[in-house]
Amino acid sequence: MGVQWDAISTAEHVGSVIPPTDNAFGRTYSAATYFPGQGARTVEFSFKGIDIYVFFILANNVPGAWTETFCRFILDGQATDYHHAPSQSADYDYNALVYSQHNLSNVDHTLLITADGYSTKSFMNFDYAIYTVDDGTSSIQPSTPTASSKSPTGAIVGGVVGGVALLFLILVLLLLRRRRRRPAEDSSIAATSGSPVLMPFTLSHPTLQLWPEDRAVPHDATPFLIPDQKKRTPRHTPNASMSSSSEALRVQRQAEISDEISGLTRDMHGSASTRGWEGSEVSRVMEQNTVMKAQIEQLQAQLHSDWALGLSNDPPPGYSNLRA
């Protein structure tokens, strides 16, 4: 990542616009004021992913200081302009989403943030960026920015929080509940239709990755199909003589497992939305999310176990201890 301010202290350029670092990501940020005719102020970094989000700290009413923001985001040559008009509030706007792009190709991208060529001044305060990747790698590495000033460097944070993965999980739960409500007659119709039936997604949920420069939360989702009638094993074939008590037991047990999955996913989402991690917290959060990911995958496998289907009264190994 490159941060190109000028060679003198940032404080000389931002005047009294010095937001407290308590609410900044990693308690640091990069700030400068562009002056017409004095050269560009730029931030540039590369990433490989499918979504990108950029967050500034925006200033509002600071007596005696310029707080209006003009800048341009150039992603792989495509430019988008941004403008922030300060309000009368004395508060700073932390975690302000100022730029985002979605559904990118999963290739290397370069994003340039620049203030240049304006006829008026522009205050810029880059806090951090988030990008989403769709592979399963995980690593921690130090930030190594290049800058020509004394200003601190904001973190670039990759992948969060699995917004897409969370959407898929909601779809899973809705489909499961709908499937539980359907009477046995619907199952018989589906069994004799001859076409494959789409089932809920089997998810590999994200683990939280926190880098000073990259925080990536990979996600993937693989749909699967019930085999058609000719290829079904006895376990897949609906049993018209299934008693109502057995069906009620299946619904109860699968609902219990689904609730466990939902609770774990909320826990992961909550930890991923936390701001201001420090060194020791990074490892702790990653370990917690790795454990929860394994628990979710185990619960998903148990949704179709003999116990969950009401065919056995022996819970799957380790089930009772998953949320302990």
Automatic annotation (TrEMBL):
<keyword id="KW-0472">Membrane</keyword>
<feature type="compositionally biased region" description="Polar residues">
    <location>
        <begin position="236"/>
        <end position="247"/>
    </location>
</feature>
<dbReference type="GO" id="GO:0071944">
    <property type="term" value="C:cell periphery"/>
</dbReference>
<feature type="region of interest" description="Disordered">
    <location>
        <begin position="224"/>
        <end position="249"/>
    </location>
</feature>
<dbReference type="GO" id="GO:0016020">
    <property type="term" value="C:membrane"/>
</dbReference>
<dbReference type="InterPro" id="IPR051694">
    <property type="entry name" value="Immunoregulatory_rcpt-like"/>
</dbReference>
<feature type="transmembrane region" description="Helical">
    <location>
        <begin position="155"/>
        <end position="176"/>
    </location>
</feature>
<keyword id="KW-0812">Transmembrane</keyword>
<protein>
    <submittedName>
        <fullName>Uncharacterized protein</fullName>
    </submittedName>
</protein>
<keyword id="KW-1133">Transmembrane helix</keyword>
